[in-house]
Design brief:
The structure holds two protein chains of two kinds.
Chain A (H helix, E strand, L loop, with lengths): L1 H20 L2 H28 L1 E4 L4 H29 L1 H5 L6 H34 L5 H27 L3 H27 L7 H20 L1 H13 L3 H29 L6
Helix pairs in contact in A: 1-5, 2-3, 2-5, 3-5, 3-6, 3-7, 5-6, 5-10, 6-7, 6-9, 6-10, 7-8, 8-9, 9-10
Chain B lengths: L5 H17 L1 H6 L4 E9 L14 E2 L5 E5 L4 E13 L4 E12 L3 E6 L2 E6 L2 E7 L9 E4 L1 H43 L17 H4 L4 E2 L3 E6 L4 E8 L11 E6 L2 E12 L7 E3 L5 E4 L4 E13 H8 L10 E8 L3 E7 L2 E6 L2 E8 L5 E6 L10 E7 L7 E8 L11 E5 L5 H5 L3 H25 L1
Parallel strand pairs in B: 3-13, 16-25
Antiparallel strand pairs in B: 1-2, 1-4, 4-5, 4-11, 6-7, 6-12, 8-9, 8-10, 8-11, 12-13, 14-15, 14-17, 17-18, 17-23, 19-20, 19-24, 21-22, 21-23, 24-25
The chains are: A mainly alpha, B alpha+beta.
Chain lengths: 276, 451
């Protein structure tokens, strides 16, 4: 029985992945990722060459984070669109006349996006290996750990994206809602970090209040934002805290499972055909 | 043209005067001074006493004073005129107009119990390497007075020696000029005794320890924890507005070694590596010097407040604080886990080369040839060791063990043409193109079969 479900998921994933890998937008995204990473690296290497010497953390991390976030945008939007598109086209209903269950369908969507992200990461790793060979900038163990945590972030975002996809009726609505949620998460996180880095000169109590408020909201975000899990695991990598790192990865798994179950519930509750 | 009536002119002038005087802009320029009981502070910041350089105090607006645990911290409560300066966003004290020390005993309380009742004690700053010494010590009690007297005596002796040397120098110059004039006039000076240039006395070559004037202060040295403090006047009453919270902070357990990096070619452009997760990247400068120092990690808010109660910081951030140079270690250079070189600390002399671009040559210090050394450090010359990645390890001189968090990677970055960085973009573009062509071909095939 379980094997049958796995087989169904595998067939669905294979079918979906074929579409992804023959889609030129997928490769265009990777090209854009490479182009932006190269531009950032050009600046970083230029600054090291200009100064002659520089002390700092791994210079490949920042371009990787940018590359990762760009590919994450593609993967998340693709997950947001996936179910709502089939719902609108009416193909979803046809699918459930066969032996496919709701959970198999959702899991197939989830694994499709995750594998697609994995392929993007393979491209990115090849790119950074090439850069490392060219410049002698090593790929550190921290770099590998960050790649692993980026998978967990992708997993969370795909879960959230699928949930939004089941929640809404129109593609535009789904995309706008998802962007608003992610912007809200990242905006608060970035604002909090910016406020922490502002000048330490005293006298500005307003800044203090802002900092405190952002700090409180950030504490809430620790629980509800997948981006926060990633940033905390990133901090754990650099403070050599494997315990904290594993905890945040576990949080990501729970987060993903929660939203996948919510998606199933939502599809069952709202029905697979848009109302009206 | 009609001449303006004088009354009209006076009224207009008065209006303008009133607008000018009562405008908020003008009012902001005149600070309102307020008499306050303030705690003058010279708290130890791990390396030095900042109160030595500027007036640091805790105004009434701050209710907590932070200090480092188990260190002597200087407290001097006074009544002064305090004003807020908007540009600097901080309170300043006008000590010229009012600077009256608060009399009484300083009480420190923990959980409501008085654990210390301190009376004032004489204190001086003792700078062992002279007025520009990088290290400051605090001397208290009778020893402070003794040190100050010693310093005054040494200053007088030095003054006398200086005068004596100056007069010898003047006599030498005078005799030299006299002989030169006689030579110019064509006089035969054979048989004359040529003067010998007087040498700077060895006592004048080195700075004497510098000691500040003794001041009566409270010396607070407490262990980590939260306390309350207040001043009790002679009559037994608590001095009004003297109560404050007192927090003694300690560093986070993780300690490590920080490095100051001095490139040979750019001596003045130094880099610092405090965090052990950082690497040192080199592009052209294969020769550089490392100066290791011990460091401690503090909570940013607590540490910044300990430096100056008017500073701000974040409770959530941690910062590395430089403590003192590490003299009890040596450095090892490794490549692919193989020991290449053991490097010991040496003194260096810096020679600046004048020219269109300012550059430096750093030479190993030789006492006989160079007046003094500029710095001591560990020299790394990677020019003959090939490109690649190296590791620097700090080793304890006593037990020979590698010091925790004292390791750094040195990465020699290759010079690359910019276009090479953009080369990988073609890989996904090519695969994408092939995928697109194949998809189109499939689409045509499906269409053909349908037809």
């Amino acid at each position: 029985m379980a094997f049958g479900k796995v087989h169904i998921i595998a067939v669905l994933v294979k079918k979906e992945l074929k579409l992804v890998f023959f889609d030129w937008i997928f490769y265009l995204t990777i090209c854009a990722v490479f182009l932006i990473s190269s531009f950032i690296l050009e600046n970083i290497i230029g600054s090291i060459q200009g100064r002659g010497i520089r002390a700092g953390s791994d210079p490949l991390i920042f371009p990787y984070l940018v590359a990762m976030s760009l590919s994450m945008v593609y993967i998340s939007l693709s997950s947001v669109v996936s179910i709502v598109k089939e719902k609108n086209e009416g193909t979803l209903l046809v699918l459930f006349y066969g032996p496919i269950r709701l959970i198999s369908y959702i899991l197939s969507k989830y694994f499709k996006e995750l594998i697609a992200y994995g392929v993007v990461v393979i491209f990115i790793v090849i790119y950074f290996l090439f850069i490392s060979f060219l410049t002698n900038l090593n790929l550190s163990i921290e770099f590998v750990q960050i790649i692993i945590s980026s998978f967990f972030l992708a997993s969370c975002l795909i879960g959230l994206g699928l949930f939004i996809s089941t929640l809404t009726t129109g593609i535009t609505k789904a995309i706008i809602l998802f962007i608003l949620i992610v912007l809200g998460f990242s905006g608060i996180e970035i604002l909090h970090r910016l406020l922490l880095n502002l000048s330490l000169v005293t006298g500005s109590t307003t800044l203090g209040y802002f900092r405190e408020s952002a700090g409180i909201i950030s504490k809430i975000m620790v629980v509800i934002s997948p981006l926060s899990y990633f940033l905390r695991s990133y901090d754990a990598v650099y403070s050599k805290a494997p315990g904290a790192y594993s905890v945040y990865l576990c949080f990501s798994i729970i987060y993903t499972l929660f939203f996948l179950l919510c998606s199933r519930f939502m599809l069952k509750y709202k029905g697979i055909i848009p109302k009206g | 043209m009609r001449i303006l009536k004088p009354r009209f002119v006076i009224i207009v002038c008065l209006i303008f005067y009133c607008i000018f005087v009562f405008s908020p802009v003008v009012q902001a320029l005149v600070p309102i001074k307020q008499e306050q009981l303030i705690y003058g502070l010279s708290a130890f910041n791990g390396e030095d006493y900042l109160g030595r350089y500027r007036d640091i105090f805790c105004p009434q607006s701050e209710d907590t004073i932070y200090v480092l645990n188990d260190h002597d911290n200087v407290f001097l409560p006074t009544y002064s005129l305090v004003y807020f300066w908007p540009d600097k966003k901080a309170f300043f004290a006008d000590r010229v107009s009012l600077n009256e020390p608060v009399k009484g005993r300083l009480e420190i309380l923990r959980d409501g119990d008085i654990i210390r009742s301190l009376s004032k004690t004489k204190f001086v700053y003792f700078l062992p390497e002279g007025p520009y010494s990088t290290k400051t010590e605090v001397v208290v009690g009778k020893k402070a007075e003794v040190e100050y007297e010693k310093f005054c005596k040494a200053v007088v002796e030095r003054e006398m020696l200086t005068r004596k040397f100056q007069s010898e120098q003047e006599q030498y110059q005078k005799r030299k000029r006299e002989l030169q004039e006689r030579i110019i006039e064509g006089e035969d000076i054979q048989g004359e005794v040529f003067p010998i240039a007087p040498q700077v006395p060895p006592e004048l070559r080195e700075d004497i320890p510098y000691v500040t004037e003794p001041v009566e202060v409270y010396l607070v040295n407490i262990e980590e924890g939260n306390y309350k403090m207040r001043i009790r006047a002679a009559g037994g009453k608590i001095v009004e507005k003297s109560e404050k919270n007192l927090v003694a902070i300690s560093p986070r357990k993780k300690k490590g070694i920080g490095y100051e990096i001095i490139p040979e070619a750019k001596y003045s452009q130094r880099e610092y590596s405090a965090d052990w997760s950082e690497n040192i990247y080199l592009a052209d400068d294969d020769i550089f010097y490392l100066r290791p120092y011990s460091q401690e990690r503090y909570n940013e808010l607590e540490y910044e407040k300990a430096k100056d109660p008017q500073n701000e910081g974040s409770k959530e951030k941690w910062e590395w604080v430089r403590i003192e140079p590490r003299k009890d270690i040596f450095l090892q250079l490794h490549k692919r886990r193989k020991l290449i070189e053991e490097i010991m600390e040496k003194a260096y002399f810096v020679k600046s080369i004048s020219g269109p671009t300012r550059s430096y040559t750093i030479l190993e210090y030789r006492e006989s040839e160079m007046p003094y050394s500029h710095f001591s450090g560990y020299k790394f010359d990677l020019s003959s060791k090939g490109r690649g990645t190296y590791t620097v390890r700090a080793i304890d001189l006593i037990d020979g063990k590698s010091i925790e968090f004292g390791e750094r990677k040195i990465i020699l970055v290759k010079n690359v043409d910019d276009w090479l960085l953009y080369l990988p973009v073609f890989l996904p573009a090519l695969i994408g193109f092939l995928a697109f062509v194949r998809k189109k071909r499939n689409d045509f095939r499906v269409r053909d079969s349908n037809v």
